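Build the 3D complex.
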Amino acid sequence: MSADTVTRTIAAAPAAPRAARPRMRWGSETIAGAIIVGGLIAVALLAPVLAPASPTAGDIGRRLFDVGTNGNILGTDGQGRDILTRLIWGARPALIGGITPVLIAGVIGTALGMIAGLAPRIGRSAIMRTLDVLYAFPAILLAVAIGAALGPGVVNSIVSLAVVLIAPIARVAEAEVLRVRSADFIDVARASGASRALIAIRQVLPNIAPTLIVYGTSLIGLAIVYSAGLSFLGLGVTPPEPDWGQMLNDLRQFIYDRPLLSLVPAAAILLASIGFNLLGDGLKRRLEVRDGEALL
Amino acid sequence: MLVSTLKRLAQSVPIMIGVAIVVFVTMKLIPGDPVAALLGPNSTPASRHALTERLGLDQPLPVQFGSWAISALHGDLGTSISLQRAVGPLVVGAFLNTLILLVAALLIALVGGIVLGTLSALRPSSVLGRFVRGFTLFTISIPQYTVALLLLLFAVETGLLPTGGMVTTGQSGPGTVLVHLVLPAIAASITPMGGIARLFSTALSDVLHQDFITSYRARGLAGAAVLRHAVHGTIPALLNITGLQVSYLLGGTLFIEVIFAWPGLGQLVFQAVSSRDYPVVQAGVLLSALVLVLVNVVVDSVHAAIDPRVRA
Amino acid sequence: MTARLEVRDLNVSFRRGERVISAVRGVDLEAGAGRTLVLLGESGSGKSVTANAILRLYGRSARIDGSVRLDGEELLSLPEKRMRALRGRTVSMVPQDPSAALDPLRRVGDQIVEVLGLWGVARGNGAARRIAAGLLERVGIAEPERVLRSLPFELSGGMRQRIAIAIAVACEPRLLIADEPTTALDVTVQAKVLDLFAELQRANNMSMIVVTHDVGVARMIGHDIAVMYAGRIVESGPMEQVLSAPRHPYTAGLLEALPTPGIPRGELRAIPGRPPGPGEAIPDDACAFVTRCAFAVASCSAHRPRLEPVGAGQSAACDVIDAPIATAFSADTAVVA
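Done.
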């Protein structure tokens, strides 16, 4: 058999072997997390329909109404804008600001991790040590430094968060690749002459994917918090667009007279974070049982 | 042990250089021409050219980096644009205040985390165990600024504790600092406490299931003694996460300081970001990262001292 | 001779989430003073669980019913404090995995000294270390001082096993439970350790329970044998008698699988199938061995055979077999009446 035929045979063969999956019950954690996340996505998508008022136009005559006022159930802010409306509309930048950096960093980080994991010792050291430099920064400060340099704006905020997240994802990916690398089916594939790239994609990736997906899910919760944090500091979403972090900073100054107002966006951020963390935890539990069997 | 610590320090030098490079690169990322910004829109090309030469901005990048790094090592980190003061002493002074907050928060987080983690590990199915697990999920999900806001609210409503600053005007000394430290430290400690509790619970559980624990019991050791040995076995894992939490705290204290007006590095960086005072921002981030690298060296060294398997 | 250890109707079950797993069912055992009982079985048979249950090492995580009497004293109803006083001193255990028997983070010497102090064997560090060194020499460790200063991972598996044995016999217990005590050892050390056990038995009338899956070791070491399968005793009795004239198909199968001089290796017959794994549900109203048994008949799936005496101190739990089963092993040995 020529090397060509062998490679094509590998390519035609089914992807990495996985033991029969036992029927698993979805834990209550996963369901709760999924409901919250699903709800968030629904709110974000249906914002124009759900919101009772305009997110940017405010009535100065109705400014700083407290939570529970008739007509503005969650109160109004300093410019008279309805907080509930801004909260609903704020779900979009929250989700975008959370999911996009994780996706970008996920692709780049996984690629780097896989290259590092499958590379010879020297290459791996070089890549991981370079990533160690990024790891040396406290995450928020790195995001602030990059964000401050790039200036405010959603795109810049996404970029800085993505840069910050690449190193942790790459580390997890590399560790997973190393774990999978010594499995038998990899040796079989390599013995039959398949190219490294092919092995990587068809054999390694499906086996490291679950762990990375779980990790990524919990990172989304973190990214939402961080991106709200960046907006809080004035980087990220610019006014008058509604954003939970920015609302938090905005309402903070009224804490002596209207303390409850600032709790509203805080609660939203917290809920989003809990939702994604629950989902990630639940998936992890389901994954851990599978893990021992995946490499049988 | 001293030798291995020095070796680790030496190994961290390339990382510190890397850190400096990253900070330098972010400085260069700033859009716009700094010279034009400094001189204003009415500057002449001649004066711009002169300033460019004087600031060394016409040199190739590696050279610029070199001269910046060398001055930084001498303590010269530039001048604050908005405050017109030397950045170096400004940043270091603020950092010391952050250090106070950080140490306090870390201590609270460690004590709380270990207690909660132990409860969760020893009685996982009890009501207490489940409550602890729910609580820790809550604490790692809650953003630091939310906790800070809640505590600030508490201070405002009850008037029991001060609502900001490091000292009450007119007073000085550790007493007033401590009073002002309470709320910010608690706020900063909540999220790390959850993380430490979770990790400690898992680590303790793992250790308790290992065979040598059964052997201890088979020899007649009392429960308390066995637990003591088990906890000893969790210290390596605990050290690991301490390093992580310090990293988180160094960043997280930014929000706490802003909300509680604690005059630390975080607040300084925040104000610098608002006023586009880039030298201060970069210096602050640089200092934090370098400190973190050193902390990791210390943590790794202590880890090796305790766990002989790592040394091998 | 009254039995030193009497186990009657021992049941051990664990809770895994919502299921209850029965690991040991209705086990009756006896270990005479100065005699060694071998508990023989494949992994998953419940033999290690039985050993751990006698020492009550499971605490709250297992439910133990039945009776375990040591020199007439009922162990299962003792307050934990009193049980703890017995552990290590009166009833002691050599664990299965030598590398897990010692705390990986502490020096060997510190661990032994701690235990000597706890048992009141030695007062003061100096005296304790001398005694510890003596213990190590007894199990054939040359250079005991160096070993005392070492950390477990610096020592070989065999060395660690010997240390574990040294600790277990330090107080000259009345009952020693050894879980696969010779697996990690090479032949010469094995012989030395078995000699040590024999010497202790002679000197102190020590009883031993040896848990193993190795018939060869069982024969070398034991006076009596109890064969376990799926949590139950299927055959028991004096060693030579059971081995030369087995009355249960499982025992016979284990013997057939033994390498025996005269039988070419290729002709060894392993028992087809595999034993039930941990957590697998085993029906209570049928013989658990029925799926692997060459002698099974229809009634074996409908009724669980009880352990009944078949003569000369031997008992077997099989309704089909009523005479000794001939095996290649029994052909090789003289039948003991």
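Chain C has a mean pLDDT of 83.
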